[in-house]
């Protein structure tokens, strides 16, 4: 039984990861071969020839088709077999899956489920991507030996920052500050403000703050695998209201999680900032700080994964800060249940007469 929501858009790659060559990616446990067609758009096919199962990525491009490297069966970008060397008839079963693709803002999105349900209008977007008052910068593709659910939960959890990132994204000032959680909208949101406190290491280095600041963390988690962290700082004496945090140094850290297998996740991260927007060196410095912080997350999450694979002696423990992650898991389970069943009750027959 699948553990992955398939009817959703996932980030397959940064645009820079895909070129004219046949390249294999593993997404939701499935191997996919991707390449740029002659018009520059991205094609994505099941990476397995239906004849003898050789990966098509081991074959070669022939124009905008892919030729299997074993017996030469050739497939177009719709997945249809267009050539079987030595015979004229093309069996209907000689085809591979083709996956819908949307590419924007330097990000390649893929739909791994029912292709008839793939709506490009539902691909994640933010107005800041196209706003000249913000700088957009792609980071890395961080590989974690961790289940994607644990990675995602970490990204709707402001409470861990004080303990996992004490020199970069957090400090002791936030340890006992309450976390607010809102779970009714499209995104699960967890947030808190730390008022009149010492700036964290990140904003000492990037924002240049020396005196006390008011700082915030807003964590937005969209099912199944997109997280946005809105964080920043402003001088305490400015008495910033929550809705005016754009007046401070504000950064959106975006995380696009791609489940590879049950225990392997790729976190492609990037940031959007409202400060030093014309300074490429600022992005370089921020990348270095983010890499330090995310390496701290990686160590924690991989240690948790290792322990989850061992026999458990007691029931799981949940505490107050787990509200967001618990709602997230319920949403994932609800989506999985929808994909496991076929609902024909929406058009009831006269066999059942409803009184409510």
TrEMBL record:
<dbReference type="InterPro" id="IPR050584">
    <property type="entry name" value="Cholesterol_7-desaturase"/>
</dbReference>
<keyword id="KW-0808">Transferase</keyword>
<dbReference type="GO" id="GO:0008168">
    <property type="term" value="F:methyltransferase activity"/>
</dbReference>
<keyword id="KW-0489">Methyltransferase</keyword>
<dbReference type="GO" id="GO:0032259">
    <property type="term" value="P:methylation"/>
</dbReference>
<keyword id="KW-0503">Monooxygenase</keyword>
<dbReference type="InterPro" id="IPR017941">
    <property type="entry name" value="Rieske_2Fe-2S"/>
</dbReference>
<dbReference type="GO" id="GO:0046872">
    <property type="term" value="F:metal ion binding"/>
</dbReference>
<dbReference type="GO" id="GO:0004497">
    <property type="term" value="F:monooxygenase activity"/>
</dbReference>
<keyword id="KW-0560">Oxidoreductase</keyword>
<keyword id="KW-0479">Metal-binding</keyword>
<dbReference type="GO" id="GO:0051537">
    <property type="term" value="F:2 iron, 2 sulfur cluster binding"/>
</dbReference>
<dbReference type="Pfam" id="PF19112">
    <property type="entry name" value="VanA_C"/>
</dbReference>
<dbReference type="Pfam" id="PF00355">
    <property type="entry name" value="Rieske"/>
</dbReference>
<keyword id="KW-0411">Iron-sulfur</keyword>
<feature type="domain" description="Rieske">
    <location>
        <begin position="9"/>
        <end position="110"/>
    </location>
</feature>
<keyword id="KW-0001">2Fe-2S</keyword>
<keyword id="KW-0408">Iron</keyword>
<protein>
    <submittedName>
        <fullName>Vanillate O-demethylase monooxygenase subunit</fullName>
    </submittedName>
</protein>
<dbReference type="InterPro" id="IPR044043">
    <property type="entry name" value="VanA_C_cat"/>
</dbReference>
<dbReference type="InterPro" id="IPR036922">
    <property type="entry name" value="Rieske_2Fe-2S_sf"/>
</dbReference>
